Known about the structure:
1 helix, mainly alpha
Amino acid sequence: MLAPLVIFYAAFSSAVSGLSGFNITTS
Length: 27
């Protein structure tokens, strides 16, 4: 029951760090 939430959180945090890295690179 908790596994889908953990997977979603991992994907979300990965996307967030990817976006912030992209923003740092562009600026």
